[in-house]
């Protein structure tokens, strides 16, 4: 179950005034999925490139404990908030 700090960070990320760069969004996505669902157990998309990039961003965190992903996600949102808030 996500911590209140994680939930707050997720809300903050959704409310950035400016959209972060694609690479930043993918990192956020990957950490979020790892923190909430753990290791990626889905099949790698073949034709949908957007889904493939998201899949790869999540899969890069394979093996990372969910608690660690949550901590990294919170920290990364705080880092991005200084640029996009």
Summed up:
By secondary structure, this protein is mainly alpha-helical.
Low-confidence stretches: none
The CATH architecture can be named as Up-down Bundle
Distance between the termini: 27 Å
Multimeric state of these chains?
single chain
- Sum up the overall morphology in one term: globular
Give the CATH class: Mainly Alpha
The counted number of beta strands is 0
How many discrete domains? Answer: 1
Biggest β-sheet strands, sense, barrel? none
SSE sequence, one letter per element? HHHH
Overall mean confidence score, pLDDT: 97
Strand content: under 5%
Helical residues, percent: 55-70%
Radius of gyration: 13 Å
Overview of the molecule:
The structure is a single chain. With 85 residues, the chain is mostly helical. It has a single domain, classed as Acyl-CoA Binding Protein. The protein contains four helices and no strands. Helix 1 packs parallel to helix 4, helix 2 crosses helix 3 (49-59) and helix 2 packs antiparallel against helix 4. Residues 1-85 form the ACB domain. Keywords: Lipid-binding. One of its GO terms (biological process) is fatty acid metabolic process.
Characteristics:
85 residues, Acyl-CoA Binding Protein, 4 helices, globular, Acyl-CoA-binding_protein, Acyl-CoA-binding_sf, lipid-binding, fatty-acyl-CoA binding
Question: What is the topological layout?
Answer:
Elements: H1 4-14, H2 22-37, H3 49-59, H4 66-84
Helix pairs in contact: 1-4, 2-3, 2-4
Family: Belongs to the ACBP family.
GO molecular function: fatty-acyl-CoA binding
Domain ACB: 1-85
